[in-house]
Amino acid sequence: MDLSQALLLFIVLAPGVVFSVISLLWLVGWVPKERVLSATTGIVFAASIFALAAISWNVGAAPVVIKFRDWFAVGQYDFPLVLMADRLSVPFLGMTVVLSGLIGQFSATYLHRDGGFLRFYLLLHLFAFGSLLAFAAASFDLLIGGWEVVGITSVLLIAFFQQRPAPVENALRVFTIYRASDIGLLLVVFAMHQWAGTASFAGRFPQLTGAQAAVAGLLLLFAAAGKAAQIPFSGWLPRAMEGPTPSSAIFYGGISIHAGPYLLLRAQPLLAHSGMASALVIVIGVLTAIHGTIVGRATADAKTSLAYASLTQVGVIFVEIGIGWTWVAVIHTVGHATGRTLQFLRAPSMLHDYHQMHSAAGGELAPTGKHLDSLFPERFQLWLYRWALDRGHLDTVLDRLVVDPLVRLSRVFAKLDGIAFGDIRSRREEAAISLQAGSGVRGD
Amino acid sequence: MADPRLVLTVIAISMPWSAGIFSAVIQRKVRAVGFSASLISLIASALMLDGALPAESLSAALMVLFSSLTLGAIVVLPRRDCNLRIVGGILFLLGSTLLGYSTGNLLVLLAAWILTTVPFYLSRLFRALWRPRVSLFVSSVALALAISVIAASSHSLTIHRLSGDSPGGIAAFALLVIAVIFRKGICPAHAWVADAIDGGPVIPSALLLNGHFGALLVAKLIVPVFPDTVRNFFPVLSDLALATALYVAIRSLSENAPRRLIAFLALSQSACILAGLESRTTEGITGALVHWIVVSVSTMGLFTVLRLLEVRFGENLTASTHLGLAEHAPRLAVFFLIFGLALVGLPGTLSFCSQDLLIHGTLQSHPQTGLLLPIAIAMNAVSFFRLFTRLFLGKRRTGFTIVADALPREQWILAAGVLFVVLGGLFPNGIVAPRLAEAEATRPAAHAPMRPAAMQP
Fold it and tell me: Three-state DSSP class for A96?
């Protein structure tokens, strides 16, 4: 293993090791001080930034690849454990270590003496590990691992303020969307193994026929749309704003929301092979961008407004990917992620910033959007406003078409099963009321 | 000199039974006696596993797994559950289950099958509700009839001698499938599993479920002994198992009783084991055997944490509202989360590997029905996360006089379980490779041509 390989390994593993060691020690009784956590975070990500700088110095010539033994191999199926830093992954790896380090430092003050300080830092490290693994993976098999870790940390941070029911319920909603869309990624890995014998893209991308590329492209688009909150999954993004501001910044301004575009960028050879999949990527991107810009204008709070602005830009990035402008999409992603993270971090000071701007402009800030008003008749504007207020009815449609029928079916099954157990169930439900009142404690 | 393997087997099986009787006589220190007996069983099983040939290690591996689960359960049992009735029943269950795992004789297997169910009929032990009792009884009768038919058409009751012979033909096969359906809780006989957990003692009932005797019958008897029938008719059982996984996953979406909800998750995930065993692919069978281990450890972890919560906060927990228990028991919350996510395939845990293999195996052999598997797993994940958020997140409750997170003995045992599923996930080859050898040993038998009558023993 040469120096570049060792550095790449360090970058990917360091946050995972920090997470594992601290959480294991906590499980057996140790509680680290805030200063220890923030200092560890600073050191790890600073070292990672230097390590990545050293790697990227050489990446122009050839990608850095580390091949381990198969994670496991059974029959014809193997799970390759290969990490790769190439010209596509290095910008994403850089984005991850820089923004994670930044958020780590910002949160030391922002979450000082918060009850969830330790939880936040542990999840930040786990998230960074998941992202780095997804971006450095040289196969879709391994990419899924990082992808799902990003998903679970994301929902646990949405439920960060666990005392209130709204963040908790919203976390459940986001988790549901993530798990549903991840099925696409699971199936594409299976399909690639079946059709091409591998899901690895270290070196040569798996060779598929036109029809196979179309199916794989659509499955990947399904997964990417879920993670990047593209239509029809956009409804989860404003719900995710329940988390603390630093996590909203890094997840939905910075890294997590750009994991979808990364997946499609990785699958660019496949999209290039299927006009239908590329066209659908463009259509979804356009629709999401329009949806985001209209709904964003009707939102009442700063973070949700920024979330929809983020959604609009990611929609545009999807369009760039669908057209095949790979490098435009990469540059757009990096620029957008860093700029939007800053905006999110400044969101709690937004009024202060506004007053400063207002004073600097001499007490006159020109209103924006008037030109749009003049384009549409008033009745249409009113309809559009209602549509935007309900966030494009996307959640309502998903509820009516998927959630409600499933829950109804579940209740039918419950009736089929539970005739003889109504007594037990009702007894428990009644007893639950006493628990809510805070009584009924029995010790070990 | 006696065969050391036989000696170890006898020690592993007889020690828990003897300890159960000893506890009944002295009527004190039941946890210490139970711990010692299950530890001896574990050591004996581990020695057997150490000396077993790679292709024959399944029985010993299962014995190690079940002894470990029992050992952990006895250590972690809440004080109010740690009485002669519960510990004695668990030890009886351990001995009977190890007997079933270790035997190659059909009559002994039948005896073990029945003995494991006995505590659930006795009012002095864990008397279950009517549906578990009826289902276990039907499965026992079906197995007894199947063995009678096999005995009538063959001169041997030793499994390896019957291998590939299909004794008793379709009648014996059908009876065995009925036994599996009722024991494993496959649709339409699935409802008893949740009832057993809901209406009986949680930890012993979880141990009964995690014996996975239905899957054992498939792996040990049906696949090797009925290869041709398996090829033609077994996909029906596999489809039923996948349908069960999906049905129960949907069913759990509206379930609010934590015990029943975890039972449904356990049932849905363990139904995948049958689908994998039937897939007739190396990936599917290996995935099923690894999944067997993961489901056992994770569900035992979940049921244990739930029971620990029940003794602290009352047996009236519900998922219909946010209870905010993480504020009172943060470590139990983390253990619960990790075991639950390990059950539904979180990357970095062993179930990620097992489900990866299972999905590949089942999709390869049944592309249409195999699609149900990832959908069922995704729904289970949602149901589990809903349960976690409702139990542990939400506003902190006031009025609890005792705030108790995991006690040291609970912490260490649960941490050991978490380490197993996590380290197993990070370094899966230590667990996957032996299962591959066992899967290879099972798979060719499923495809072996019928031997001419003259060659049969």
Answer: helix
- Tell me how many degrees the CA angle B45-B50-B55 measures, rounded to the nearest 5: 100
Q: Which of B195, B283, B389, B412 to mutate to test the interface with A (most CBs of A within 10 A)?
A: B389
The ipTM value here is 0.88
CA dihedral B87, B88, B89, B92 (to 10 degrees): 120
**A429:B334 CB<8 A:** no
- Phi, psi at residue A78, to the nearest 5°? -130, 155
pTM of the model: 0.90
pLDDT digits (tens, 9 = 90+) for A276-285: 999 999 999 9
Query: What is the amino acid identity at position A422?
Result: G
Minimal CA separation from B88 to chain A, in Å: 20
Instruction: Classify residue B203 as exposed, middle or buried by CB count within 10 Å of its CB (0-12, 13-18, 19+).
Output: buried
By the 8 A CB rule, do A230 and A318 touch? Answer: yes
- Report d(CA A346, CA A351) in Å as an integer: 10
Rounded-to-integer distance, Cα A120 and Cα A104, Å: 9
Residue among B72, B88, B199, B217 at smallest CA distance from B144: B217
* Chain position carrying tokens 């050191």: A43
CA B40 to chain centre: 21
The type of residue at B171 is A
Q: How far apart are CA A53 and CA A47, in angstroms?
A: 10
Q: Where are the domains of chain B?
A: 1-102, 103-455
CB A32 within 8 A of CB A124: no
For the segment A381-425, what is each residue's pLDDT rounded down to a tens digit?
899 999 999 999 999 999 999 999 999 999 999 888 865 444 444
Classify strands A82-85 and A72-74 as parallel, antiparallel or unpaired: unpaired
Identity at A42, one-letter amino acid code: G
CB contact under 8 A, A163 and B395: yes
Task: List, in sequence order, the alpha helices (H) in B279-329.
Answer: 282-313
